[in-house]
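Trying the structure run again after the queue cleared.
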Amino acid sequence: MSAAALVALSDALSETEFDAAFGEWMRGRDPEQAVRELLIYAGSVDPHGRLTAVDIARRIGTPAYRAWKDAMKRPELRGYARASLSMMAGDLPETTLPLVLEPDPDDMAWLAADLLAMTCSTDDPDPDEIARVFAEVVPEGQQQRIVGAMAQISHPDTVRVLDVLGTHHPNGRVAREARKAVRAMARDKVPARAAGKA
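Done. Tokens:
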């Protein structure tokens, strides 16, 4: 069974049934290779699939820490890898850990975009839910910085997420920063198109 099929099963089976399927999938697989398969899939799918694949990969634990270290090289996975390595830190030798485990603004921006992309998937987003998810990822006092970072990352849902933040976030300052970021992204695209025509 592929990593993609395993991730799909997680939405279709009960927890008990999925535990059995996961145990079968792991049988005969090297833990590090199993996490690599899941992370390769996680890097190529939508936020829901990515979060599910990451959650499954975290079940495997410390035997797969090298796969998580390698995931630090990929922008779409780096925030998840930092968090996973931080959770494992107490069980790993210090020499195996990256020098910096604290998330940087780009990591937090990517995580926020992933989580908000799922929250913003309805036609009528709930402002309270938008605020709750945003607060889960973005520390107090970092809102302006992270919204600005969201405008700089290559996440495919950035414009939609910022547009929803600008329209629905109940904090006026966050909403203004999101609208400003969307305008800045639009301005940046204009010169790029003009250069392409030149």
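The chain has two domains: 3-96, 105-197. Worth checking whether this holds up in the mutant runs.
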